[in-house]
Amino acid sequence: MTTLNPSYQLYRLAADQKSAEVTDWSARISWVLALVVLIAFVYWLMRQGWKWRGSLQSGLPELATTPSDFTDGEKLLTLTGRYHASTTAGQWLDRIVAHGLGTRSRVEMTLTEQGLDVVRPGAADFFVPAAALREARLDKALAGKVLPEGGLLVITWAHGDQLIDSGFRSDHAAEHQAWVEAVNHLGGTAADHPTSTTEGTAR
């Protein structure tokens, strides 16, 4: 029986081992840089599109501010949740971005006989006088945002010569129906606009 000496065994072991693949770092870095440039370009296009849409909507009047005596009135309803978007009424994809209405945010809403006070931390607050309220409904989609059936409270209001749909979602979705009834009652439209769930005027 032939016995291999230690030096020969080491030689055979080294010969059997394959060399580890060498990482091509220059190629990897190039791919990463190309990806970063692509993402930056897409983001720039989105920003330009946002600015272009805002310029088209520059004729929209400034948003109303909360009256100084608003807190003196009796609160009909309050809500905390999220503001999703505003669109041209009946056109669920026609997003309005002027005056910060395109910015999603947390929201605190208060409804009184004077109107609707919308407070948005980190975004522009606005006030909708009672005379400008048109209707409210339950919906599931607005400005590309899709939620479960009836998961969105949409309030339609007049601003200047334009009707606007604004979408909200309460932290407690069971509150939505009470808001539909209260807004429709305050706007005097309860008889003309049933409070059943819809998918929007234009869909």
Your description of this structure?
This protein is an alpha+beta fold and 203 residues long. Helix content is 27%, strand content 28%. It has 3 helices and 9 strands, in the order H-H-E-E-E-E-E-E-E-E-E-H. The protein has helices at residues 6-16, 25-56, 176-186, and strands at residues 77-88, 105-112, 115-119, 126-129, 133-139, 141-142, 145-146, 152-159, 162-170. The strands form 2 sheets. It has a 7-stranded antiparallel β-sheet with strand order 4-3-2-1-9-8-5, covered by helices on one side. Strand 6 and strand 7 (145-146) form a beta hairpin. The radius of gyration is 29 Å and the shape is elongated. It starts with 5 loop residues before the first helix and ends in a 17-residue tail after the last helix. Mean pLDDT is 80; it is low at 190-203.
Key features?
203 residues; alpha+beta; seven-stranded antiparallel sheet; two-stranded antiparallel sheet; 3 helices; disordered C terminus
Percent of residues in helices comes to 25-40%
* Residue windows where pLDDT falls under 50 for at least 5 positions: 190-203
Rg (CA only): 29 Å
Determine the strand fraction and express it as a percent band. Answer: 25-35%
Label the structural class.
alpha+beta
What is the mean pLDDT? Answer: 80
The string of secondary-structure elements, in order, is HHEEEEEEEEEH
